[in-house]
Amino acid sequence: MKLKVLSPLLLCVNFIFPQSSELSTGLGVAAGMITGSGLSYRNIGESKGIQFTFGIMSFPHDDYDDETYWREDHMGSYGVIDWVPDTSRTDKMYEYSNGGTWGNAGLVFIKPLHRAEKSMFYLLGGVSMYYSSSSDYYMEYKYIHDTDSTYTYKAVSDRKKETTTDYTFRVGAGIGLEYELTENIRFSLDLPLTISDNKQITMIVPEAGLYYYFK
Q1: Alpha-carbon distance 81 to 66, whole Å?
Q2: In angstroms, what is the C-alpha Rg of the chain?
Q3: N or C: fewer beta carbons within 10 Å in the chain?
């Protein structure tokens, strides 16, 4: 009786999580310059494969007390003896803590070259995009000429926001090895040659991934 009850359950488990060396689709995490860093999807058939990785992080801005956290190293009044400040120069005094967002996405194509009992050697090529955005808050300060011999360093603007956004694109190709830790869990290690959109060439920076193959 117990066997009759368990058999349908085992069939259902095997259908959802099949235990087979022919598994080709996995989900996991990856980190690399071409693959990108974050959650990763990988599908590898007999002759070709594809991998997509996506990750994002956000850092909120901390609203500190302005009077405590503004840089006020030079604030005050100064009598002139030998030094005369530049009254035409305006300085930006930034807050100590600022927020921002960082994200990336990578698309990789895989060409299997050799398969062993627990491993696979392959070529890979792909493209990745990195995005970063930061928001800085600041106030403008300058020296004000009060009298013939006195200057005051003080704020000349309200609190302002400055946003900086940057995109970096990379393309690359190299070799990789996937190793089967268990029937479902596999580890990948890649070594690509990458070129960024500012013509920076990078090699000998390994990429890694850990996947659970379920289909």
Answers
A1: 32
A2: 28
A3: N
Distance between CA atoms of 55 and 128, rounded to whole angstroms? 12
Q: Could you state, in order of their start, the residue ranges of all structural domains in the chain?
A: 25-213
Contact between 105 and 56 under an 8 Å Cβ cutoff? The reply is: no
- Cβ atoms of 176 and 114 within 8 Å: the answer is no
How high does pLDDT run on average in the chain?
Answer: 82
Q: What phi and psi values does residue 159 have, to the nearest 5 degrees?
A: -65, 130
Q: Give 34-81 pLDDT, tens digit per residue.
A: 999 999 999 999 999 999 999 999 877 666 554 444 444 445 555 555
Q: Which amino acid belongs to residue 107?
A: L
User: Across residues 179-207, what is the average pLDDT?
Assistant: 93
Query: With bands split at pLDDT 50, 70 and 90, how would you rate the model's confidence at 3?
Result: very low
Q: How many residues does the chain have?
A: 215
SS3 48: coil
* Residue labelled with tokens 């990078």: 202
154: helix, strand or coil: strand
Amino acid identity, residue 210? L
Q: Which CATH number is 25-213's, of 1.10.1740, 2.20.28, 1.10.3470, 2.40.160?
A: 2.40.160
For residue 10, the model assigns a pLDDT of 37
